């Protein structure tokens, strides 16, 4: 049950429903998870600064159970997600930052319990 949160200073018009679906599919494929388990939030139009510049940028947070817990895994995920974001948004790699969070099953609640019991 991965969680994808994209924050950007790009306007909301840059993030259509089609973009959200493509981001969901890309992240699901990169993480090896079914699309039906993905959770995606996009927060556009934020005041942001990356590397000392307020030029268009994206910060992406990827939180998941069991697939974001090693450097080797995250290197693979990063390459796939960067390819998608640079292609879709026209941003240089220097304007994108991805943060990976390794979650434990007890940290994710669903259906009145936590994933440890589902």
UniProtKB/TrEMBL annotation:
<keyword id="KW-0456">Lyase</keyword>
<comment type="similarity">
    <text>Belongs to the MIF family.</text>
</comment>
<comment type="subunit">
    <text>Homotrimer.</text>
</comment>
<keyword id="KW-0963">Cytoplasm</keyword>
<dbReference type="GO" id="GO:0005615">
    <property type="term" value="C:extracellular space"/>
</dbReference>
<protein>
    <recommendedName>
        <fullName>D-dopachrome decarboxylase</fullName>
        <ecNumber>4.1.1.84</ecNumber>
    </recommendedName>
</protein>
<dbReference type="GO" id="GO:0050178">
    <property type="term" value="F:phenylpyruvate tautomerase activity"/>
</dbReference>
<keyword id="KW-0007">Acetylation</keyword>
<dbReference type="GO" id="GO:0005737">
    <property type="term" value="C:cytoplasm"/>
</dbReference>
<dbReference type="InterPro" id="IPR001398">
    <property type="entry name" value="Macrophage_inhib_fac"/>
</dbReference>
<dbReference type="GO" id="GO:0042438">
    <property type="term" value="P:melanin biosynthetic process"/>
</dbReference>
<dbReference type="Pfam" id="PF01187">
    <property type="entry name" value="MIF"/>
</dbReference>
<dbReference type="GO" id="GO:0033981">
    <property type="term" value="F:D-dopachrome decarboxylase activity"/>
</dbReference>
<comment type="function">
    <text>Tautomerization of D-dopachrome with decarboxylation to give 5,6-dihydroxyindole (DHI).</text>
</comment>
<keyword id="KW-0470">Melanin biosynthesis</keyword>
<dbReference type="InterPro" id="IPR014347">
    <property type="entry name" value="Tautomerase/MIF_sf"/>
</dbReference>
């Amino acid at each position: 049950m991965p969680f994808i949160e994209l924050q950007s200073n790009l306007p909301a018009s840059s993030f259509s429903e089609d973009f959200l679906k493509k981001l969901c599919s890309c992240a699901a494929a990169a993480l090896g998870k079914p699309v039906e388990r993905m959770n995606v939030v996009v927060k556009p139009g934020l005041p942001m600064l990356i590397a000392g510049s307020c030029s268009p940028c994206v910060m992406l947070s990827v939180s998941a159970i069991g697939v974001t817990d090693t450097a080797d895994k995250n290197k693979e995920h990063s390459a796939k997600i960067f390819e998608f974001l640079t292609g879709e948004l026209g941003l240089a790699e220097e304007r994108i930052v991805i943060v990976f969070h390794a979650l434990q099953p007890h940290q994710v609640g669903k259906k009145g319990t936590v994933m440890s019991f589902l």
